[in-house]
Amino acid sequence: MTTGRKAEAGGAMEAGTGTWRQLPGWVTGLILLCCGIELLIVALQLTGWADARGMATVYGGFWSRLFHDLWPVYPGQQLAMFFSYGLLHGGILHLAMNMVSLAVVARELAKLTGPGVMLLVYLICQIAAAGLFALMAPAAGPMVGASGAVFGLAGALVGLVAIRRRQRGQPMGPLWRAVANIVVLNLGLTLLVPAIAWQAHLGGAVTGLALGLWIGRAQPASTRR
């Protein structure tokens, strides 16, 4: 029994290590950066700066109202926030959910495309997610989190897999079930967590899907994995 448990534990550790090794370097770096920022905020709160998260959100969160009735707190904030909001999270649980999702999706997407293309997709989807949020929720409070970009990578993965399966004459049923699961998950999160930025999820996912379909069709046959 002890030997079996050790073997199982060793297998789990090897699987976890393998997952990290399969991630592009920028994904690992991004996860470490997001975790470092969250740990810094928590540390500041524990040492007496109770409003550390609030201040981080003021400077790094995405504020739709900056395009309407708010003034930026520093020059260029209206542009910088399109990139900075994805580095902040609402707490450790929010961070953990997004980083685990990012690792899982990125590992699979890395099998189909290069790290540079994936990074470009991530950035475009993060910008698109914030853009749709600003259009659909102009009076909303600040938004933080990487989930819009993560949904974008998931959408790109669906698009690429759809192209592959169609080219190989494989059934599309499993893919549509995966899409349905993503939609149900997003709807469930929206109902359970009313403050969730579903608009950003939608913007990221649709943009990622379009990019995935385009990349899948544009890739030369020799580079398809």
Automatic annotation (TrEMBL):
Top-level taxonomic group: Bacteria
Q: How does it sit in the membrane?
A: Multi-pass membrane protein
Give a yes or no for keyword Transcription regulation in this entry.
no
Tell me, in one coarse class, where this protein mainly resides.
membrane
**SUPFAM superfamilies reported for this sequence:** Rhomboid-like
- Localization per record: Membrane
GO terms (molecular function) for this protein are:
serine-type endopeptidase activity
Q: What is this protein called?
A: Peptidase S54 rhomboid domain-containing protein
Name the species this protein comes from.
Paracoccus zhejiangensis
